[in-house]
């Protein structure tokens, strides 16, 4: 068992010891794999998709029945990048020291691929030289076929999958769908935060991926479970935290994973955590972020900024066009407001959340929301 100096992680996944709940989601991912179903994993940014994938993969590694490949395609701009990231991901998994890795490298060399090694980490990287468009499709097919012929079943997670909607190639979805459909041994998790884009890809009857996956939408972690997780970790670290202080953290961060982790991480610097200690740490966090927030203001029009301030003050809003809201903040008529809301949604400054009963809006970044509330009281 590893011992970290701070159990509240705010960047990478470490192990299930430092991971709060998500048991139901884990079970659903397992069930999907058992049923040969692919999964589309959706939530807003920083709620815990990547963490959940890591948690799931840790579980699969323990069972040793299934191999896993993880790629993050956030940085990809076209199909070439996608193939490149997939090859790197496979190579990270089946290293050149293993027989399978050797076999994979042999296949890659068949495509005249060139290998380079990252100076610092020493991880291998693959460069392809395509002659024709068909070359690319064939390369992608061979990479997937390689996985399909492994003795273990394989789960491939493609994180930030919405990125493929930005590729200039028009047929990427059809191409991927056709190739994926032929695989017998490989399951996929398509993960991303742009709900609208992903729903279009996977739930529009006119698109290739239609009805080919099970949806898994992450929600905030249950408050009681988070409370328990926080208390437990403070106890393990021989620290005390007041119940009131935990409440304050959960409310101030809306029990939104990244922000809750962040504040807990800071609170953990203290041996005895009271509400006052937490409030002080929260204020420090906002001070640290201030220059970033001021930068945001430069990127928005004055009116958009005013709308964001108004939304922060309301904390949560069902209706931008209600008489109350419009007379209170004087932001213009409903069509002006609609244009601003659309722009802020597009810039991911505002988050739209849908439940079966209602749609609500709030400032996307919780720290920004708290900072706006503090700055414009
Ligand atoms: N269940 C969890 N328990 C504790 N920390 C978590 C959990 N899920 C995510 N985190 C942490 O929260 C942060 C945001 O999670 P991440 O998985 O990166 O979100 P996403 O991929 O949805 O943007 C990360 O620092 C991660 O370590
Ligand atoms: Mg992520």
Produce a short descriptive summary:
This protein has 15 helices and 11 strands. The protein has 377 residues and is α/β, with parallel strands linked by helices. It is globular and about 65 Å long.
What does this structure look like?
The chain starts with 22 loop residues before the first helix and ends with a helix. The model has no long low-confidence stretch (mean pLDDT 94). The protein has 15 helices and 11 strands. Helix 9 runs parallel beside helix 11, helix 12 packs across helix 14 (334-346) and helix 12 (302-314) crosses helix 15. The chain is globular. The strands form 4 sheets. It has a 5-stranded parallel β-sheet, with helices on both faces. A two-stranded antiparallel sheet has the order 3-4. With 377 residues, it is of the alpha/beta class. The protein has 3 domains: 22-217, P-loop containing nucleotide triphosphate hydrolases (Rossmann fold), CATH 3.40.50.300; 221-292, Helicase, Ruva Protein, domain 3 (Orthogonal Bundle); 300-377, Arc Repressor Mutant, subunit A (Orthogonal Bundle), CATH 1.10.10. It has helices spanning 23-34, 49-63, 79-93, 99-110, 133-148, 172-181, 195-203, 223-236, 243-252, 257-267, 275-299, 302-314, 323-329, 334-346, 366-375; strands spanning 38-42, 66-72, 114-117, 124-127, 153-159, 186-192, 213-217, 240-241, 272-273, 350-354, 359-363. Strand 5 (153-159), helix 6 (172-181) and strand 6 form a beta-alpha-beta unit. Bound molecules: adenosine-5'-diphosphate (ADP) and magnesium ion. Magnesium ion binds at residues 49-50, 159.
């Amino acid at each position: 068992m590893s011992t970290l100096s701070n159990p509240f992680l705010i960047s990478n996944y470490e192990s299930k010891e430092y991971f709060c709940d998500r048991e139901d989601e884990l079970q659903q991912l397992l069930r999907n794999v058992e049923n040969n179903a692919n999964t589309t994993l959706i939530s807003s940014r920083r709620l815990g998709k990547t963490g959940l994938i890591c948690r799931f993969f840790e579980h699969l590694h323990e069972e040793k029945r299934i191999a896993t490949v993880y790629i993050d395609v956030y940085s990809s701009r076209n199909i070439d990048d996608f193939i490149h990231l997939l090859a790197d991901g496979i190579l990270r998994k089946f290293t050149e020291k293993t027989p399978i890795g050797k076999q994979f490298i042999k296949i890659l060399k068949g495509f005249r691929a060139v290998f380079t090694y990252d100076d610092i980490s020493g991880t291998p990287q693959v460069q392809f030289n395509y002659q024709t468009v068909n070359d690319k499709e064939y390369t992608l097919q061979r990479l997937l076929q390689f996985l399909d012929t492994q003795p273990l079943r394989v789960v491939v997670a493609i994180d930030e999958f919405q990125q493929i909607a930005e590729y200039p190639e028009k047929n990427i979805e059809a191409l991927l769908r056709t190739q994926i459909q032929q695989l017998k041994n490989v399951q996929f998790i398509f993960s991303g935060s742009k709900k609208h884009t992903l729903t279009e890809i996977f739930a529009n009857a006119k698109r290739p991926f239609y009805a080919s996956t099970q949806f898994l939408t992450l929600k905030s972690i249950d408050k009681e479970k988070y409370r328990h997780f926080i208390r437990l970790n403070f106890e393990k670290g021989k620290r005390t935290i007041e119940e009131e202080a935990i409440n304050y953290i959960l409310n101030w961060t809306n029990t939104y994973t990244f922000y809750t982790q962040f504040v807990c991480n800071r609170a953990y610097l203290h041996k005895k955590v009271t509400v006052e200690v937490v409030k002080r740490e929260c204020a420090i966090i906002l001070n640290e972020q201030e220059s970033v927030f001021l930068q945001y203001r430069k990127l928005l029009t004055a009116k958009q900024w005013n709308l964001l301030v108004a939304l922060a003050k309301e904390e949560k809003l069902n209706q931008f066009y209600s008489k109350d809201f419009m007379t209170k903040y004087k932001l213009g008529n409903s069509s002006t407001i609609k244009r601003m809301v659309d722009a802020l949604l597009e810039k991911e400054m505002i988050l739209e959340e849908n439940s079966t009963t209602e749609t609500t809006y709030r400032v996307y970044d919780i720290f920004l929301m708290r900072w706006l509330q503090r700055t414009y009281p």
